Amino acid sequence: MELTDANFASTVETSTIPVMVDFWAPWCGPCRFIAPAVEELAGTFQGQIQVGKVNVDENPRVASRFNVRSIPTLLFFKNGQVVDVIRAAVPKDQIQKKIEDVLAK
């Protein structure tokens, strides 16, 4: 799901299920490294967690609002609030563990 400055609040902050937001940019090598894992986990946890992507070059207001200063950054939202974060390119199993932790909260 593509998130933008315009639809972020209405999509993420009102979601009835947790949301993982991937802040990325097309020129970012580490972002491209984790993209397949993010997509695979979106399928694995379909219906339990929504997964969205924010292109920081095209949507600077959302990135600034959440103090995203380096990418990739994954923010985990529950009930409209940030409950966890990953600020680096990490292996799929670490992202999966974080999703499972958020779902268990």
The largest sheet is: 5 strands, mixed
Q: Provide the spatial order of strands within the biggest beta sheet.
A: 1-3-2-4-5
How many E strands? Answer: 5
C-alpha geometry: globular
Percent of residues in beta strands? Answer: 15-25%
Number of domains: 1
How much is the average pLDDT? 96
CATH class: Alpha Beta
CATH homologous superfamily title: Glutaredoxin
Question: Concise description?
Answer:
The protein has 105 residues and is of the alpha/beta class. The chain has helices at 8-12, 29-44, 60-65, 92-104, and strands at residues 2-3, 19-24, 50-55, 73-78, 81-86.
Describe what this molecule looks like in 3D:
This protein has helices at about 10, 30-45, 60-65, 90-105; strands at about 1-5, 20-25, 50-55, 75-80, 80-85. By secondary structure, it is α/β, with parallel strands linked by helices. The chain has a single domain (about 1-90), classed as Glutaredoxin (3-Layer(aba) Sandwich), CATH 3.40.30.10. The longest helix is centred in the middle third of the chain and has 16 residues, at about 30-45. The chain starts with a strand and ends with a helix.
